[in-house]
Amino acid sequence: MKILVTGNMGYVGPSVSRHLRSAHPEAVIHGFDTGYFAHCLTGAEFLPETALDAQFFGDVRHFPVQMLKGYDAVVHLAAISNDPMGHRFEQITLDINQTASVTLARAAARAGVGHFVFASSCSVYGIAEGGPRREGDPLNPITAYARSKIGTETALAGIEGDMVVTSLRFATACGMSDRVRLDLVLNDFVASALATGRITVLSDGTPWRPLIDTADMARAIGWAITRDAGTGGRCLSVNAGCDGGNYQVRHLAEAVAAAIPGATVSINTDAPADSRSYRVDFGLYRALAPDHQPVVTLADSIAGLKAGLTGMGFADAGFRASQMIRLRVLEAHRAAGRLDADLFWQDGRQA
Q1: CB contact at 8 A, 75 and 21
Q2: What distance in Å separates the CA atoms of residue 297 and residue 242, rounded to the nearest whole number?
């Protein structure tokens, strides 16, 4: 098997590379990344890309489609990866997350790639009152990031041919990583508890979020790269996570406080309603992929973050201005003149 992972040098990529190497020790696995966050290593004992056979650098907006020939699977992680970055770089988010993604998928189909896996998001449900959302329920993408994800899903469903396409609507990512992000709700709470002894919930604590650890995201991708078209259809969009992973934000804060002695929780009970609140039904994923279900519990994710951050000597009360906040990294690149206004590198590379 020959696998290409785009965006592999971000937050989720190290877990994916590690899992694919373990599950397919004889596979040829390549990475393709622009390198925005390559330097943002956090407690890694060795470069995670050593799990790969080769690392290529480039921008997915200028992907060299000729290199797709011979791959059995493409795992497409590359994206402007959260709402704050999507708000700051809205058009670029559309260009990278949607236009480039669809172009890549179409080129993969023409090149004879067997499986294309797209990292989508449960954020496409937006504000969703009532019961947990299933794949066929109405969507309400309220951010540029979420709109780009559903726009890509829609286009992928129209690609003709034999390529098996799986759009994994991931729950909110969490957990430790060789390039950890602290701009995610659970990760932020653990970092804040460790650095300041306080967890501040800016909302009233009632919004719902489904969570999935990066290790379980990798397990889902491992399923998708070998999924048979008879299991869910040739083009499938599926919620990836587990029903027990739906939590209200206040419950996440309380769980972190319970795991970190001395940490206190402050909830803004007077806050206006959060613009994102959704519970998700993961029954379809459970039925289609019974052997690839999430196994990392909330307690496990918190413990992993606590151990990982403590192990790297983390004590930065100002972490929201650090390179563990991805928007801050892009802003630093821009301020130093390394990236132009369209987030292309300014040293003559296409990467």
Answers
A1: no
A2: 10
Q: What would the DSSP string read from start to end of 148-202?
A: HHHHHHHHHTT--SS-EEEEEEEPEEES--TT--SSSHHHHHHHHHHHHSEEEES
Q: Of 71-85, 151-165, 270-284, where does mean pLDDT reach its minimum?
A: 270-284
CB atoms within 10 A of CB 330: 20
The second-level CATH assignment, the architecture, of 2-180+210-246+278-295+327-335 is 3-Layer(aba) Sandwich (3.40)
Measured CA to CA, the distance from residue 215 to residue 177 in angstroms comes to: 9
What pLDDT, on a 0 to 100 scale, did the predictor assign at position 275? 61
Q: From CA 319, how far away is CA 324, in angstroms rounded?
A: 7
What is the torsional sign of CA 25, 27, 28, 32?
A: negative
* CA 80 to chain CA mean position, Å: 10
Residue 324 is given by DSSP the state T
**Mean pLDDT confidence for 232-257:** 97
345: which strand partners? 339
| % helix, strand, coil for the chain, step of 5 | 40, 20, 40
Query: What is the rounded CA–CA span in Å between residue 57 and residue 33?
Result: 5
